[in-house]
From TrEMBL:
<keyword id="KW-0408">Iron</keyword>
<keyword id="KW-0492">Microsome</keyword>
<dbReference type="GO" id="GO:0020037">
    <property type="term" value="F:heme binding"/>
</dbReference>
<keyword id="KW-0560">Oxidoreductase</keyword>
<keyword id="KW-1133">Transmembrane helix</keyword>
<protein>
    <recommendedName>
        <fullName>Cytochrome P450</fullName>
    </recommendedName>
</protein>
<keyword id="KW-0349">Heme</keyword>
<dbReference type="Pfam" id="PF00067">
    <property type="entry name" value="p450"/>
</dbReference>
<dbReference type="GO" id="GO:0016705">
    <property type="term" value="F:oxidoreductase activity, acting on paired donors, with incorporation or reduction of molecular oxygen"/>
</dbReference>
<dbReference type="InterPro" id="IPR050705">
    <property type="entry name" value="Cytochrome_P450_3A"/>
</dbReference>
<dbReference type="InterPro" id="IPR002401">
    <property type="entry name" value="Cyt_P450_E_grp-I"/>
</dbReference>
<keyword id="KW-0256">Endoplasmic reticulum</keyword>
<feature type="transmembrane region" description="Helical">
    <location>
        <begin position="213"/>
        <end position="232"/>
    </location>
</feature>
<dbReference type="GO" id="GO:0005506">
    <property type="term" value="F:iron ion binding"/>
</dbReference>
<dbReference type="GO" id="GO:0008395">
    <property type="term" value="F:steroid hydroxylase activity"/>
</dbReference>
<comment type="similarity">
    <text>Belongs to the cytochrome P450 family.</text>
</comment>
<dbReference type="InterPro" id="IPR001128">
    <property type="entry name" value="Cyt_P450"/>
</dbReference>
């Protein structure tokens, strides 16, 4: 009996607590609704959830389209209890991303919530970001990427073996699965110096840990929601909580730390990111002998190298893999376009080795990749934070305001892209591109925070695969594709396809 009473009183206390939070929130919103004060239009926020409720219900990309259609090119929304301004006006976006990028250097970061990612490029702010980016950028120069090419080729060999197996067995397969394995193997090999060989089902423990980063469980969705509440998120972050699975983080971090240690002791060498960071350190030491110490740091600590490697994994794995999946889906459902891409590859490359330079000569392929990224942009929101009060078009926004560029509605605006649901690579002919506002295509973002590592691994995989096999749709292929609901745009379901060996 007394146990029931205790249970009842806990429930009652919790209920009262929740009601108080709710009342406080509604009161706060009514008196402090920042958008009402500034005059920015937007939907009435749903208590505590804001637009997250609609984004979860409809899918974020669809919700963004609906918001822009209803409220215009500048919309004020709440994400949880955080105010965010969505901007699709191209001139204002150009100011935010490029012209006034000194005001918008940073992304939104939950202080203390980034764990081992804290020194990563996506998270770093102001001078620290500039410093790290200037050290890391040369790693992705064409010369360095060329050096990584043979590592990528090894993985692409395994990918092709799998495709040929499917062709010979006439087996229907989910292209998303093998693309995920391909990009994971490439990133692990080129950045961490680890051969995951997930395409061959090796290294299962590491692969399962890496995959856990990208799997959203209910607990993680809940944690994510809490972390979106700035003060609470920051408090929990400082206490050591993280949205990412702790065991997987520790397992992966340990492997990378061991690789760094072996390289420092010269026990092994490889043309990968970690090696480049260590070699760079040696070059700087040589250059600086006898010089005064500089205020700007030129090398990264082990912790910082680890953070960059983890960020590259997070930023590069899913983006590249979904690009490849959407691309091959297009090939299978648009056979005329597939034939044109194939003919260009044959003409430009024949049976020659696929080199970095040759990949850059394939103009029609680039157009098809860009049109794929227009229709299915993997990253559907770019974000920036104002570092001071700023005049955003007609509105004066306070320091700290978060701006989001919703990429999906920008890429599907029928005034800029006639018949936006049609796949038309010719939209990316140089003459057509010149007619458009530069902010009309934002698959890689823009300005100094733009993605700098373009779709090289995806391009290599695509070209080598298309030389060997032709992609076909089958009964199980979902046409049109249904899209998923979260921030990295993916198809909702598997993409089942078939491949046939090419005779030539
Ligand atoms: C199809 C492939 C890819 C797409 C569509 C893509 C897209 C993007 C986008 C939209 C951004 C934000 C840009 C902005 O805020 O203006 C970004 C940032 C970034 N991406 Fe990618 N990305 C791709 C591949 C990769 C790969 C393969 C890597 C690394 C291995 C990578 C690493 C990064 C990093 C580090 C940033 C943050 C840059 C910074 O803040 O300085 N991305 N990417």
């Amino acid at each position: 009996m007394s146990l029931f009473l205790i249970g009842d009183s806990i429930t009652l206390t919790l209920l009262i607590f929740l009601i108080l939070i709710f009342v406080y929130y509604v009161y706060n919103l009514r008196t402090n609704n920042i958008f009402r004060r500034i005059g920015i239009p937007g939907p009435a926020p749903i208590p505590l959830l804001g637009e997250l409720f609609n984004a979860m219900r409809r899918g974020m990309y669809k919700n963004d389209v609906a918001l822009i259609k209803k409220h215009g090119k500048i919309v004020g929304i709440y994400e949880g209890i955080t105010p965010i301004i969505l901007v699709t006006d191209p001139d204002i976006l150009r100011n935010v991303l490029i012209k006034d990028c000194h005001v918008f250097v940073n992304r939104r970061v939950i202080e203390g919530g980034a764990g081992p990612f804290e020194h990563g490029l996506t998270v770093l702010k102001d001078e620290q970001w500039k410093n790290a980016r200037s050290i890391v950028s040369p790693t992705f120069s064409s010369a360095k990427l060329k050096a990584m090419h043979s590592l990528m080729n090894d993985v692409s060999d395994m990918y092709n073996e799998r495709l040929l197996e499917y062709a010979d067995k006439q087996e229907i397969f989910d292209i998303k699965t093998i693309n995920g394995q391909y990009t994971l193997d490439i990133i692990a090999s080129c950045l961490f110096g680890v051969e995951t060989n997930s395409l061959k089902n090796e290294n299962i423990i590491l692969i399962n840990h890496l995959k856990k980063f990208f799997t959203l469980t209910l607990t993680r969705i809940f944690l994510l929601f809490i972390f979106l509440t700035p003060r609470l998120g920051s408090y929990l972050g400082k206490k050591g909580y993280t949205v990412l699975p702790r065991d997987s983080l520790e397992y992966t971090a340990n492997i990378v730390i061991q690789v760094i240690a072996r390289r420092r002791q010269c026990l092994e060498r490889r043309n990968d990111f970690i090696q480049m960071m260590i070699d760079h350190e040696e070059e700087i030491k040589d250059q600086e002998v006898g010089q005064q110490s500089k205020s700007l740091r030129k090398t990264l600590s082990d912790k910082e190298i680890l953070s960059q490697a983890l960020v590259f994994l997070a930023a590069g794995y899913e983006t590249s893999s979904v690009l490849m999946s959407f691309f091959f889906y297009v090939m299978a459902t648009e056979p005329v376009i597939q034939e044109k891409v194939y003919q260009e590859i044959r003409q430009e490359l024949g049976d020659d080795e696929v080199t970095y330079e040759k990949l850059n000569q394939l103009q029609y392929l680039d157009m098809v990749i860009n049109e794929t990224l227009r229709m299915y942009p993997p990253v559907i929101r770019l974000d920036r934070v104002a570092s001071k009060d700023y005049q955003l078009g007609n509105y004066l926004i306070p320091k700290g305001t978060i701006i989001h560029a919703p990429v999906y509605p920008i890429h599907h605006d029928s005034e800029v892209w006639p018949e936006p649901e049609k796949f038309i690579p010719e939209r990316f002919l140089p003459a057509e591109k010149a007619k458009r506002h530069p902010m009309a295509f934002l698959a890689f973002g823009d300005g100094p925070r733009q993605a700098q590592i373009f779709a090289l691994e995806a391009k290599l995989g695509i070209v080598r695969a298309l030389r060997l096999v032709e992609f076909e749709r089958c009964e199980e292929t979902e046409v049109p594709l249904q899209l998923g609901k979260i921030i990295v745009l993916n198809s909702k379901n598997s993409i089942f396809l078939r491949v046939v060996r090419r005779s030539q």
